[in-house]
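Running this now, will post back.
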Amino acid sequence: MTALTLTSSSRVESETRVTFTHAACSAVTSNACVPVLRRFVVHCVRRLGLSEDLCDAAGLVSSELITNAVLHSGSHSVAVLVSLEGHSLVITVRDEGGWRTRIEPRHSPADDDAPCGRGLSLVEMLTECLSITTGSRGTVVKASLHVDASVSDAGAPCDV
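Update: finished.
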């Protein structure tokens, strides 16, 4: 796992630690990177002082998006960016693989008992906005979760 960046938005007057507005982490694509990157996202959300409900939702959303990159992209690495943008917690997952269009429709009667295949539907239910951008350089999935206005401006010291 490689920590890419931690950007300071302001100095905390009484402490030497900084308040962050975004943090990123990348890992070699493997099944083992999913829980590691999910824990990174959850850690960031907790350090921002956001609710446990939002923390749980962010953990599920990031897990689903990272798993999709691992299983479907063919990329050698996956990166996650966690950012606070206005009243939204934004989780961005980027891979360098190729988009594979599904030939069959996702949910057919034969899929009803399948143990997988519902990840993006869950993500759509938990987020206020979901965008998927594909191209020759890979796929970027950006999921925005609503943050209570009273909390989103607070921030919290981060020692990631």
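The two ends are 13 Å apart (CA to CA). More later if anyone needs it.
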